[in-house]
Write a structure and sequence with these properties.
CATH topology of the largest domain: Rossmann fold
Bound molecules: nicotinamide-adenine-dinucleotide, uridine-5'-diphosphate
Structural class: alpha/beta
Strand order of the largest sheet: 3-2-1-4-5-6-11
Length: 308
């Protein structure tokens, strides 16, 4: 198949492109290189089955493809808050452009949505039918609300135009090729520990997240695209739940670092708990994560040791 991956030069996108090329597909990676890097896909650039298209998803584009994975959108709070209006445009206009293309060429299209659609959740663990607790006017809203709107567009194109959609809600994912300085917690803690700098825990560190290793996530994403039974939304994430303080202590121990933990204020609207209910994921995708947090951290620490 010929497959379009928007955001294909980013952290998740580059792993997805690699996996699809290994499955012998032709891959077109569309990316404006805002948070993506050519280094992430350098090993694919010589492959005749791979094409990089430097393009901004908010501008229309015409392509002939069989499938579309829509990942284009900055994902770390620092980057999506850098230009919040642009983040809104990327998610919303980007979704409209991708859906218009999918409609025209009859391509199946998957949306990389997010656990952020649940906001600071009052239901725990989060099931797909939970409608969320999102602040519409806060600093995280440009991301949360535009991702919610993108989901709405996907389901409207599905109902009105019979576009063949798939929607996944990705929970915190980590692994090689995360940017060292994009402010996400796993990369921050590992880089701080390797450099012997203070480990910056925000708030009292009792807030929780569920961390999924990138290889597992990509596996689930492709399973969702390939299955015929349902369109989603489906949660995709490792249900193991850890406090941020537990993560900090784990990283210090596993790196053998002498770094000290320091606390700073919790960012506005930072969700206090997050864990996917994976009942639907198991039922429809027959998916279970292969890497527990320790196993994934070993690989990620190895990567940052060689990259920093
Ligand atoms: P990332 O920032 O590494 O990747 C995003 C990619 O999109 C980058 O290559 C960037 O250059 C590109 N991009 C951004 N704006 C664009 C635009 N206007 N036009 C074209 N390309 C553009 O982030 P990631 O972690 O790889 O996330 C990929 C997708 O998965 C995002 O849509 C994100 O919302 C979603 N997601 C990720 C996580 C996670 O934990 N990594 C969690 C939930 C959802
Ligand atoms: N966090 C932290 N120290 C850091 C970076 C993040 O304590 O250096 C916390 C952050 O406040 C949040 C959690 O770690 O509670 C996950 O943050 P991240 O930005 O990785 O993802 P998100 O908040 O989008 O889930």
């Amino acid at each position: 198949m010929r497959i379009l991956v928007t955001g294909g030069a980013g952290f998740l996108g580059s792993h997805l492109c690699e996996r699809l090329i290994n499955q012998n597909h032709d891959v077109i990676c569309l990316d404006n290189l805002f948070t993506g890097r050519k280094e992430n896909i350098i090993h694919l650039l010589q492959n005749y089955k791979f094409e990089l298209l430097r393009h901004d998803i908010i501008e229309p584009f015409l392509l002939e493809v069989d499938q579309i994975y829509n990942l284009a959108c900055p994902a770390s709070p620092i980057h999506y808050q850098y230009n919040p209006i642009k983040t809104n445009k990327t998610s919303v206009i980007g979704a409209i452009n991708c859906l218009g293309l999918a409609k025209r060429v009859k391509a199946r299209i998957l949306q990389a949505s997010t656990s952020e659609v649940y906001g600071d959740p009052a239901v725990h663990p989060q099931t797909e039918d939970y409608r969320g607790n999102v602040n519409p006017i806060g600093p995280r809203s440009c991301y949360d609300e535009s991702k919610r709107c993108a989901e709405t567009l996907f389901f409207d194109y599905h109902r009105e135009n019979k576009v063949d959609i798939r929607v996944i809600r990705i929970f915190n994912t980590y692994g090689p090729r995360m940017l060292a300085d994009d402010g996400r917690v796993v990369s921050n803690f590992i880089v701080q520990a390797i450099k012997g700098n203070d480990i910056t825990v925000y708030g009292d560190g009792s807030q929780t997240r569920s961390f999924c290793y990138v290889d597992d996530l990509i596996d689930g994403m492709i399973r969702m695209m390939e299955q015929e039974e349902f369109v989603g939304p489906v949660n995709l994430g490792n249900p193991g739940e850890f406090t941020i303080m537990e993560l900090a202590e784990k990283v210090i121990k596993m790196t053998g670092s002498s770094s000290k933990i320091i606390k700073s204020p919790l960012p506005v609207d930072d969700p206090l708990q997050r864990k996917p209910d994976v009942t639907l994921t198991e039922k429809y995708l027959n998916w279970d994560p292969k890497y527990n947090l320790d196993q994934g951290l070993v690989k990620t620490i190895e990567y940052f040791r060689s990259a920093t």
